[in-house]
Amino acid sequence: MSVLSAVRQHLDKYLPRVDAGERQFREDAWRRAEATGLPKRGTETWKYTSIAPLDMMNWSVRGTNKIALPDEKKQWLNSLRGDFDTAVLVNGEFAPEISNMSADIQVSAAQLSGSGMKGEDGFADASLAVARPGLRFHVGQGVQVRRPLLIVKYQDAHEGWISSFNQIEVRERAELTVAEVLIGGEAPYLRTDLMLVSLAEGARLKWLRQQTESPSAFHFNETRVTLAANSGLHFTQLNRGSHWLRGQIFVDLLGAGAEACVHGLTFGGERQHLDQRVVVSHFAGETTSSQLFKGVYGDSAKGVLNGKIYIAPGAQKVASRQMNHNLLLSPTAEANTKPELEIYADDVKANHGATVGRLDKEKVFYLESRGIAKATAEKILGDAFVADVVMKIPDERLRRLVGEHHVS
Amino acid sequence: MLKIRDLKAAVDGKEVLRGINLDIQAGEVHAIMGPNGSGKSTLSKILAGHPDYEVTGGSISYEVNFAPRNLLEMAPDERAREGVFLAFQYPTEVPGLSNMTFLRTAFNSVCRQQGVQEMAEGPFRAFVEKKAALVDMNPSFLDRAVNEGFSGGEKKRNEILQMAVLSPRLAVLDETDSGLDIDSLKIVAQGVNKLRTKDNAILLITHYQRLLDYIVPDHVHVLSGGKIVQSGDKSLALKLESQGYDWLKGLA
Amino acid sequence: MSTESREYKHGFVTDIETEKIRKGLGEDVIRIISAKKNEPDWLLAYRLKAYKHWLTMKEPHWARADYKPINYEDLYYYAAPKSVKEKPKSLDDLDPELLRTFEKLGIPLTEQKRISGVAIDAVFDSVSLGTTHKETLDKVGVVFCSISEAVQKYPELVKKYLGTVVPHTDNFFAALNAAVFSDGSFCYIPKGVKCPLDLSTYFRINAQETGQFERTLLIAEEGSYVNYLEGCTAPQRDENQLHAAVVELVALDRAEIRYSTVQNWYTGDREGRGGIFNFVTKRGKCLGKDSKISWTQVEAGSAITWKYPSCILQGENSVGAFYSVALTHDKMQADTGTKMVHIGKNTKSTIISKGISTGGSVNSYRGLVKIMPTATGARNFSQCDSMLVGDQSGANTFPYIEVKNNSAVVEHEASTSRISEDQLFYLQSRGISQEEAISLLVNGFCKDVFKQLPLEFSVEAVKLIEMKLENSIG
Question: Does the ipTM exceed 0.90?
């Protein structure tokens, strides 16, 4: 059954049971999805990624699909309990019995209607129409949460489509550090994960998202972040797993003094298809942003990186940059990158750089000149290429969570 | 320790060195000065074995285990393991590689070559932190990526730190003073002086005389038009300081 | 500031009789065009095949440009000045009015006033009027004539290469062009010959409501070299004119082709009325080993530009280059760039693109660097810089980088800047007027591209940019 049919079928069954507000929200999302349709080959923003592999599978949308978190994952969680507050969602549903939240963060159910969330394209809207409301994390004004929050999203459902919607709100001058871990079982499932994040004036959010799903998983995420004046975001996305991945992050800088660092690292192997899109939009002047995305692709993996800087008319005195570097490790791997600039204000600094290819020979020589043999130097630089993004994660506790990655 | 005979070299097909002759003994400090474009940096890159620089004639003999070896036949990493060190004029950044890991890997490579015991992480860190004090460097730098976000002065001090850790026999300092303010210059010079022994030698490449106030050379050579046109002691440097390079034009 | 200096000085109209075929497109129009040119059957068949294919295609609309849809039925597809019924023996035989037209454009065609060092093929509306310096070229075996003449005199060459670089299936406008192209330049440089003169074609659209569909084919045999210059102008009119040209370049082993364009089509008035729709497919194929093709362009005209000079790097060690300055002002929209496709081993490409946007214009760079699995050791370097003048304009950069070979190295950099107030003030404080200062700064911004142009062109390019910048500031 195609994606859109699965959505309609689910809505017909489910909508009569929800309140009017939610029904309207979902119907609107459905209408938008139907009107735009799923992204096609000609859709510019999906140029390198086809939805066909998804559309051909037989997904059934799961409203609830209660399963238990596997023991080894529970053990891993326990080991982190000392350092992190934990919130666990299993198949989109909050599992309070294995979570452990402190009072600093207010947790409630996510609210679709009234959220203002809209999908970027037909597929995002289709996912939104059937999204299961998850959690809304709220940090009150001036609260500086000391312990980092670990959000674990575990999924496992044979040919199940689990769509979830979660929210994070950081109020004025509050601070929050989040590690979001997306893991799953071995079943072929479709995960569509939608998030709406808002940072109020002076708020700060450090966020690491680590995705390590099984090679049979299909993964789509759409994250929207808005930053008010003087707020700051440091976001790192690590993509390692899944068979097919499409991530899209939209960061909107709405007030002067806002800054956003959006970093990412993607590893691809086997026949993975990993597509990451980032759009940082400066709607207000005197804002800064920096994007750093790296991709390493081996075997017959295909990687796509699309990063965009948008500067609106009148948004003067913006400083923005974007770097995108890719390494191909095998003759059948592919890298496609499209760094974009759309600038409508003139007193700004905007630049981007993209590379695909071998290691910088000056760096190789530098290591050799310190006694390190060429082959070892190249291996060290390959590891450094990857470690660079991890080293830039601004919280030691988040860095420790990442573990070691080696470029072979 | 080092014997350079009639060295000729080219960069991008253009001849830059036209026949250099130079002898350096252990315990000596030599300075090479010259106008811009004279080939000073080229000489330092050739000694380190940079792939972009081509030797078109002549020879360089370097003493290893008390026997002369053809330096030009040695790969850059082998030269470094045998005690040749180049402090770069523009040290490159290596994001993702911490200074500590870099130093330890280099140090242990040299140890292996010399048949000396390698160091484990803990003792090595203590060892490096002591050396960092020589160049007035805050130990917190050690866990940052190599040269990333470092100011010009900090990069140069990092080069000298590496020199302190690797204890080379022949250290070539390529315009180490360029871009440094007087305070940074003093720190760097002091660091270098503390590393001098009777068994090692230093080759200073510099455009200005002021570094030589702090690191006093035994021999000063002037490189112009790809050749050494004058050699003398430190008073030669003072002459260049007061008279500039013009008077050399007739000598090339 | 007076507006006279901004007036498009090529906006005059030549008053002569033109012969036109009925408006609109159809098999009959194509047959008439082919008949008028006395074309062999294979060429007519090619046109008809292209036309049939065009009917199945849809006009591309992804370029970042807003324009009213073109009504293809409301255009003339053939307009020849009546006085060129038969090919003139020499350019001196031309209608004096036509000669005067070209003189006004600064392109003297008559014997006495020729520009030396440059052989010129003049194309008036859709018809090639003749070429200067024929004897010099004949002596070394260089063929430079109209495509219609080439079809008659060198059919094997035309047949061999026409459509091999830009097949009629390539895109909507290429198909249209293949069906209705009327004329253009044909150029053939024999083995080992370094062409003694720069070759140049001037296109001039004069007739109303006509589309210009010229076709250029340039073949450089082994070891040859040619420097080709293309310039174009058109009169001021209220309605839009369509220019859908196709240029094919073929470079064999060790051959080098340098193709430069200084484009100053009418851009429409300040409100955005009128102006040329410039939709051109230009492509060079480095067929042979060690061959080189470089595109250098200065774009300052046309209301809508859709143009991506490209290189197919097939031969081993071949090199492709693209140097461009695109200036937009008022309501102009430019979406231009290049495609470098690396197929052979050890191929290299360089892209340097400079965009200047002033007024309320939008300037987009769209480039593709594609490394195929067979392109071992491919190297690409791209630098795309935008300069925004004033706060109403926009600059976009859309580079596509697709790499399917792991030994390739691709580097791309782009930056956006504006004319620095500090620099402006510094120059003014040394007595330089604001206009001159802006000119100097913009020229500095463009110099990497200008230095690739042949001398006469670079002078013309600098003057053109300066003229366009006047009044765009403040």
Answer: no
